[in-house]
Design goal:
Length: about 120
């Protein structure tokens, strides 16, 4: 019996694939200095593409007002919620400003702007 349990445990450890966020296809801007996030369990990822598409945790958002509703619900569930904003280098500034405004309205103030290291 212990052999069967061990084999099942080994099978599930080998066969399980952890899901990673896919998001939208974006090219991150570069930064001269970066700081890595400490805890990732309280982080919600928001992607903004060069075409102006917005995605929250791998779900495409059609209207800016949805950002406020979704993030408000997340903040109520977890008051320590933080946003990691990943915007494409060519994303219109209006899209980023609209996202910031909706996050303010949802009272989700800790925002991390993601970039890749380089010159």
């Amino acid at each position: 019996m212990p052999d069967i349990v061990f084999m099942l445990l080994l099978f599930f450890m080998v066969a399980t694939v952890f899901r990673q966020y896919q998001g939208l296809p974006i090219e991150l801007p570069t930064a001269k200095k970066i700081v890595k996030l400490e805890a990732k369990k309280n982080v919600t990822h928001i992607y903004a593409s060069a075409a102006g598409e917005i995605s929250i945790d791998d779900r495409i958002i059609n209207r800016n007002r949805d950002i406020r509703n979704i993030m408000y619900k997340k903040r109520v569930e977890n008051p320590r919620t933080m946003v990691s904003l990943k915007a494409d280098r060519g994303a219109p500034m209006k899209v980023i400003t609209d996202i910031q405004q909706e996050l303010r309205e949802a009272d989700v103030l800790p925002i991390n702007y993601t970039a890749k290291f380089g010159d």
